[in-house]
Amino acid sequence: MAEQTPIIVTDNTLEGQISTLLRYLVAAGGAFALGKGWIDDATLQALTALATVALPMAWGIWKTYTAKQKLIQAAQFAPDSVAQVVHK
Questions:
Q1: Number of domains composing the chain
Q2: Deepest of 4, 23, 38, 44, by most Cβ within 10 A of its Cβ?
């Protein structure tokens, strides 16, 4: 029987920490810009909404895409009885 390589899953939680840090930086930067008079309250609310909704959504789409690419690549090397890549 051929040697089998296990599926390796990392326990890296850095991605979640980075997104949390970015939210805090946007909030702090927005408060600073508001205090300096560079932006008004409505602009700060719009930027905060953009940073808390659009950026995580784009990140999630990218992560889903790259995970799917890795899955396709792994399936190409697996025996047909284990996984098959179907081209649609």
A1: 1
A2: 44
